[in-house]
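Slide 14.
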Amino acid sequence: MNLRTKINTVVVAGAGVMGSSLAQIFAGCGYSVILYATNQARVDKSRELISINQGTLVSTGELSRAQSDSVIGHISYSLGKDCFSEADFVLETIVENMDIKHKFFKEISGLISPDVVVATNTSGLSINGIAKAVSHPERFAGMHWVNPPHLIPLIEVIGSDESLPQTLDIIRNLSEALGCKPITVHKDPPGFLINRLQLAVIREAIHIVENGYASIEDVDTVMKYALGRRYACIGPFETMDFGGVDTFYRISGYLFADLCDRKDTPELLSKAFEEGHHGLKSGKGFYDYSGDRAGAAITKRDEKLIAVSKCLPIDK
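Slide 15: predicted structure.
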């Protein structure tokens, strides 16, 4: 099969936080973007999110007002599935639920031309599992971005057992054309790379708080002002080289046995979930985002990420 390599129109399925940012990225690189949503309320919320994101890029000097208007002008919205027949590339970013993704792909993958690459932005669901619902699964793969994707450049490219090498090449080449840094994940492991590393940190962070070693605020401070700053420049294996493999060998000898290795979901996380404290989207998580605090928190985060990005260009 010869897959389509000339991409002009991109359909992003899902108009939430990730989908809205992804639409911006493609539009900012000159692609015509159709953002598919299931209802008008989602469209309205997406417009609001894009307005906040674009406003920060303008206020920090990353874009002029005219450039921002051009980005927004490249994005259109659709409540109908017929938009998928117009796609040169499709990126799905709907809810993280295998049954819902199966239903979605069974409904729309037949509408997409067989030579068009289809990708999922799942954070860790099995690519092989999702592929079962996709017609012509050889043109399907994972394309996992990191939130906020318009400011964090890494993309995980994950193939299924049926993905053609050309499928992965097209996604990697597209990632680079967007100014991003793609990596290839092999064997379709649960969580891929990013979330396996991230959840290991989160598990220990919760363990520290639940055992009274430090507050939530101080754990976040450690990451922001120590580990986060270092890992923005060098990775864990480079860290061991710089610090001394012998040093880390000795530390592991007495510390690994004391680290959290629980297999169930920690109580602190379960309690927040069950009480509906889902973070920015609900107005409260581990911190308070009521009133105008959510918008202010997004702006503050993005301003810091932009500043870091200016200092740390992508290695070629």
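Speaker note: The chain has two domains: 9-185, 194-311.
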